[in-house]
Design goal:
Elements: H1 3-19, H2 24-38, H3 42-50, H4 62-74, H5 78-86, H6 89-94, H7 102-112, H8 117-125, H9 136-153, E1 157-158, H10 159-175, E2 179-184, H11 186-189, E3 194-195, E4 197-204, H12 208-215, E5 220-226, E6 230-235, E7 240-246, H13 251-259, H14 262-273, E8 277-280, E9 283-286, H15 293-299, H16 315-321, H17 337-343, E10 357-358, H18 372-381, E11 386-389, H19 404-420, E12 426-429, E13 432-434, H20 445-448, E14 455-457, H21 466-477, E15 484-485, H22 503-512, E16 516-520, H23 530-538, E17 543-546, H24 558-567, H25 581-590
Parallel strand pairs: 4-7, 10-11, 11-12, 13-14, 14-15, 15-16, 16-17
Antiparallel strand pairs: 1-3, 2-4, 5-6, 6-7, 8-9
Helix pairs in contact: 1-2, 1-7, 8-9, 21-22
């Protein structure tokens, strides 16, 4: 296990012990141990374990050192397994409701006998929760809203989580000797921010072994349907996956059909009909009596009883058969992509390899889980030319925000790291500076002037009226030291809606003040939403795709941001961090 994975286990142990009502000092010991692990480098942890010196780290005692060593060397911890088994499942499930921590759940259990979400719902509905000391009407209302949101969100899954399940399945299908072609389709392939279920399209003739392999996948909780050419399973996470097996000459049509949104597919079928053809998941065939005289003449080549099946080897040829350039899966939403493809006006969308770095990232100095050096090394390993560090500012006390003194010390450390040339990467100095409730920035101008760039973000007072929030953010945008705006709406996918804000006015203000708006690539955010980007970019807004990484692995989440950027019709020219190091340095120095 890595140090961050071990820290996760320690933190969860602390939470479970708190649920059981254990001694607060014991709970705090695990929480402290988790933070102590995050503050050291992974290589240092390996050395300390190898030399049996783990106890020399402040916050890690003998008992904790033994558990950390067991996790590091075996990947398991017997104590943790027994602890999880001793907790009523319903209590742990209640932790998923916003605003309910271990202490409140314990109080609900001890005073009202509540052991699951169903009992909690009933207790809130009849007012028993509001009557408890430390709760009240507002808390009860928030709990009920959280339960309602959980039920609504529970039917969706983040793209990132769905992709982690889907990718090895596609790879496994392609390795089967019976399989000629295999792809994931649906909203996952279109890069939607959340996914309802998974769709797999497979070309194969001998289907029984493929169906058998699919239904026996690791993590499958239930086989919900199984036929000769179809199967559906549900994973332990609740995510459903559907498998469809077709002959090879139908693969292109099935893949297109099960990838496109409803609107895209309807428009494509209408286009086919206007040319005397019928398009479906089974093929592209002549349709008698459809289309104008000219369109019928154009379709004559496809008639004479000949199917297009077998002649079209890929989706590019399918689009070409309807006089369209290839439409990338991410654009297949029925939002003008067909008209653009007809005119040859589809943009060359940004690709993962276009990114040269990113700016909104955190270290252990605030609420990150890896050190400056570890983050720099991970970015260099990705082949990036630069990395920006933007730890939280002082008002984000919940995220261990940096004071002026700590920020200036970090700036010196970054300059020293760059001078050492330890890594083949340049590190920019920055901050994620809180936008205070009145629109002022959390640091004064003298401090901000010492940084390469400033990411301004809202982290509190989410309930302000739309006009107030909009004016607040615009005031921050108008500050001459603001370089980019972080996660504009503050949404957390499948957890909470964004705060009320006039996105159009904010975009116009950003353009007027030459401020970048980030596309926060955290799978939980993907903010600003892709639906705004095409219009905003056409007006001249510059984007930065930032992972908002809090650990080294988080840097790779820029892939989720690339999906959203592509859905927003963005090209590399629309995005600052597709530029090389020299160009970015020039941008920061001259804006």
């Amino acid at each position: 296990m890595t140090k961050n994975e071990i820290a996760d286990v320690l933190a969860e142990i602390g939470t479970l012990l708190e649920l059981k009502g254990e001694n607060p000092f014991k709970v705090r010991a695990y929480q402290t141990g988790a933070r102590a692990l995050e503050a050291i480098e992974d290589a240092e942890l390996a050395r300390l374990i190898g030399e049996e010196k783990l106890e020399t780290v402040k916050g890690i005692g003998e008992a904790l050192a033994q558990k950390i060593t067991e996790l590091r060397t075996t990947g398991r911890l017997g104590f943790f397994d027994k602890l999880k088994a001793s907790i009523e499942p319903g209590l742990a499930e209640m932790l998923q409701i916003p605003g309910l921590g271990p202490k409140k759940i314990r109080a609900l259990h001890d005073k009202l006998g509540i052991a699951d979400i169903a009992a909690l719902t009933a207790a809130c509905t009849d007012g028993r929760v509001a009557a408890l000391d430390g709760f009240g009407e507002k808390t009860q209302e928030k709990i009920l809203a959280g339960i309602k949101n959980r039920e609504a969100y529970g039917r969706r899954h983040m793209w990132w989580d769905a992709e982690e399940i889907a990718a090895p399945i596609v790879a496994g299908l392609r390795k089967l000797p019976q399989v000629k072609r295999a792809e994931a389709a649906g909203s996952l392939r279109r890069g939607m921010e959340t996914v309802g279920d998974l769709d797999f399209i497979v070309a194969a003739d001998d289907v029984a072994p493929v169906v058998g392999w699919f239904t026996k996948l690791a993590g499958v909780k239930e086989v919900t349907a199984q036929g000769e050419t179809k199967a559906s399973v549900r994973f332990e996470s609740g995510l459903q996956a559907d498998l469809r097996i077709v002959p090879d000459d139908q693969f292109v049509f099935a893949l297109h059909h099960f990838t496109g949104s409803k609107d895209h597919n309807v428009q494509m079928r209408q286009r086919a009909l206007a040319r005397g053809l019928s398009l479906s998941e089974w093929g592209l065939v002549p349709a008698e009596g459809e289309g104008t005289a000219k369109e019928k003449a154009e379709a004559a080549k496809a008639k004479a009883g000949k199917r297009e099946n077998g002649k079209l080897k890929n989706e590019a040829e399918l689009f070409a058969a309807l006089s369209l350039s290839f439409i990338p899966p991410e654009l297949r939403e029925g939002l003008g992509e067909i008209e653009a493809a007809e005119k040859g006006e589809l943009p060359r969308l940004v690709e993962p390899g276009d990114l040269r770095g990113a700016f909104h990232n955190h270290t252990t100095e605030s609420d990150g889980r890896n050190t400056l050096a570890e983050m720099a090394a991970a970015a260099a390993a990705l082949g990036w030319e630069y990395l920006g560090i933007a730890d939280h500012s002082k008002s984000s006390y919940q995220a261990n925000g940096l004071s002026e003194e700590r920020l200036l010390k970090q700036v010196d450390e970054i300059h020293a790291l760059n001078a050492s040339k330890r890594f083949k990467i340049h590190v920019f100095t920055g901050t994620e500076c809180d936008i205070l409730s009145d629109g002022r920035l959390d640091f004064d101008d003298a401090i901000l002037a010492k940084l390469d760039y400033v990411v301004a973000s809202v982290h509190n007072a989410f309930t302000q009226e739309e006009a107030v929030m909009t004016a607040r953010v615009i005031r921050a945008i108008e500050h001459p030291r603001t370089t980019m705006l972080g996660h504009l709406t503050g949404r957390l996918l499948l957890r909470r809606e964004g705060y009320r804000i006039d996105v159009g006015k904010v975009v116009d203000a950003a353009i007027a003040n030459k401020v970048i708006i980030e596309l926060n690539a955290s799978p939980w955010r993907l903010d600003l939403d892709w639906r705004y980007w095409r219009k905003a970019a056409d007006k001249g807004l510059l984007c930065a795709i930032n992972p908002d990484a809090h650990e080294t692995g988080g840097l790779e989440q820029v892939r989720a941001g690339i999906n959203s950027a592509r859905k927003g019709w963005l090209t590399k020219e629309n995005i600052l961090n597709t530029r090389g190091l020299a160009a970015v340095k020039k941008y920061f120095s001259t804006r």
